[in-house]
Amino acid sequence: MSFDVLQDKIIAMKNPTVAGLDARIDYVPAHIRQAAYAEYGKGLKGAVEAIYQFNVGLIDALCDIVPAVKPQSAYYENLGWQGMEMLERTIQYAKSKGLYVIADIKRGDIGSTASAYAEGWLSGTAVEGETFKTFDADCVTLNGYMGSDSINPFLDAAKAEDKAVFALVKTSNPGSGELQDVGVNRGGTVYGVMARLLEKLGQGTEGKYGYTRVGAVTGATHPAELAQIRTMMPHTFLLVPGYGAQGGTAEDVKFAFQENGHGAIVNSSRGIMCAWKKTGGDGHDFQEAARNAAIAMRDDICRFTTIQ
Amino acid sequence: MSFDVLQDKIIAMKNPTVAGLDARIDYVPAHIRQAAYAEYGKGLKGAVEAIYQFNVGLIDALCDIVPAVKPQSAYYENLGWQGMEMLERTIQYAKSKGLYVIADIKRGDIGSTASAYAEGWLSGTAVEGETFKTFDADCVTLNGYMGSDSINPFLDAAKAEDKAVFALVKTSNPGSGELQDVGVNRGGTVYGVMARLLEKLGQGTEGKYGYTRVGAVTGATHPAELAQIRTMMPHTFLLVPGYGAQGGTAEDVKFAFQENGHGAIVNSSRGIMCAWKKTGGDGHDFQEAARNAAIAMRDDICRFTTIQ
Question: CA end-to-end span of chain B, whole Å?
């Protein structure tokens, strides 16, 4: 679904945040793990089913207060094909609960290879004339180091399916500057070149809120750059990782939003998923803890940003 | 396995090429497709099994003349979790036939997320103290736009498992220059910054041939840049896509090799997989056609490059 749908949800819930679904097995409370191991064995299948039960519990606890979830592909690939099967189920379940699903895959490839990825994640794959949708997310994250060839096949799929993409601009990690901050002869930085490229690639796909189908990933840990990118990319919806565990604050992320409080969504993963580890309990309260953490994050961000 | 193992195989076979295993269902001869559909239905499962039979046939036809295969993850994700299950089988089968397996995944993420990917693809995932290997390739491709944080977790896994990685430097696609060729203030280009970063990250991991565990992807379609990168990265093993269908020639790729003919491997995907489409037959000869195409590619490259 396009960013219009996401912005609608954000406005309706007055909550510009997305909950990461990046479950490692050690994020899952012991009682869920033990039950899954008892039924499926203490191996990959047991871990997969434990994480799925945890994901379902998180989705149930969050779906009426958080507009979107962001499963991170790494934590599913980590468990092999069984993890990928569970990712398909997780995406389907989240969508069935009305959540907007951003598959955090950071793929980047070209030509027919990029088209193959776009089919797998957005538009479906044709076998002898019939189309099969598998991962079928609403939106994916991309890495545009290879240039527009690596974005356009996804953009085509997004247009056909009324979906959208986010591509990396300035990431939240300590080493992000090694390449992204390098100054370029034409003025500005490497991430600035990427920002302009993406803003241009999206042109002509603006929805009712004025954002194109090509969003940008910009970390909360670099507030000055975030403000600069918000200005450079007026038609671009921003996905902002780095709030909470990585050090970004609500005051930092306010720069991601436009004056009306539109145009960005802030991610938290561990802060919500692992909230139960801080309540002093044994994990039976993981849903309540996640919900409380999500509400606290929403309220924290809305101290500095008012969504009209 | 490290680049030592790969270079050993290349020297033994006098063949510095890698065969892509990027099967789309329409690359598979009709008789294989029909047999798979008859057994598994004309859907994802039928397509997956048809491609697996095709992969097995290609591996059998190539394993005594080609040192390595490169399955491209996109063509497996394209088919959902069932495609990923088949990728695990394909990697296992290729390894059982003595082939070096480069999983072309171009992943790029940071911190614990990059570690999760590295576990899934290289070193295995721990569940309650026991380690499970799933995709278990010898080597993966990476995208370093996010900086050294996105390479180091894979490098750690590669060191622990005696494996290796390739990261993108200058890619073979028409749009590669949009970001990679941009001139930087410190001199040179964005891909030059990436080249220096990778050469440095690998330092201290050199094997018996002098190459680190951090290889670089550099397209055959830009021979001048290829020659420059070969000089800039004397301790870096190169993976060279773009030969054949994309327009790179044997004379172009000679620049990827050092004087002794070491230090690079050239990829061909469609040229080998789809060779049967050019014989005038109905695809029953796909193994012979692939083998002949692989031999022709080897001989073509060795006209300009002598492996000592």
Answer: 21
Band (A1; pLDDT cuts 50, 70, 90): low
In the prediction, which pLDDT does B85 show? Answer: 98
Check B176 against A149: CB less than 8 A apart: yes
Q: B201: distance to nearest CA of chain A, Å?
A: 12
Determine the distance from the C-alpha atom of residue A1 to the mean position of all C-alpha atoms in its chain, rounded to a whole number: 13
Interface contact A120-B179, CB threshold 8 A? no
DSSP at A234? T
- Smallest Cα–Cα separation from A79: which of B131, B8, B152? B131
- Show residues of chain B in contact with A176, CB under 8 Å: 146-147, 149
Count CB-CB contacts under 10 A for residue B161: 17
Q: What is the ipTM of this complex?
A: 0.98
Q: What is the pLDDT of residues A73-90, one digit of tens each?
A: 999 999 999 999 999 999
Q: Cα(A245)–Cα(B110) distance, rounded to whole angstroms?
A: 14
Chain A's closest residue to B182, CA to CA, is A184
Partner-chain residue, chosen from B113, B117, B148, that has the shortest CB–CB distance to A178: B148
Listed as ranges, residues in chain B with pLDDT below 50 are: none
Residue of A nearest to B50 (CA): A127
Q: CA torsion angle for B293, B261, B102, B79 (degrees, to 10)? A: -30
Residue with tokens 């270079």: B7
Dihedral (CA of B18, B140, A113, A200) sign: negative
Q: Which two tokens stand for residue B146?
A: 């996010």
Residue with tokens 């193992």: B5
Coil, strand, or helix at residue B15?
coil
Residues whose CB is less than 8 angstroms from the CB of residue A296 and which lie 6 or more positions away in sequence, other chains included? none
Q: What is the pLDDT of residues A19-56, one digit of tens each?
A: 999 989 999 999 999 999 999 999 999 999 999 999 99
Residue A76 and residue A82 in contact, taking contact as beta carbons nearer than 8 Å: no
The distance of B103 to chain A (nearest Cα, Å) reads 13
- B24/A117 CB distance under 8 A: no
Pairing of strands B164-170, A17-21: unpaired
Task: Tell me the C-alpha to C-alpha distance, in Å, between residue B30 and each of B46, B47, B78.
Answer: 12, 11, 20
Cα–Cα–Cα angle for A77, A79, A84, nearest 5°? 50
Locate the chain A residue with the closest alpha carbon to B80. Answer: A134
pLDDT tens, position by position, B66-110: 999 999 999 999 999 999 999 999 999 999 999 999 999 999 999
Structure tokens at B2: 């490290």
Strand bridging mode A164-170 / A214-218: parallel
Q: Which of B280, B224, B278, B233 is nearest to B253 (CA)?
A: B224
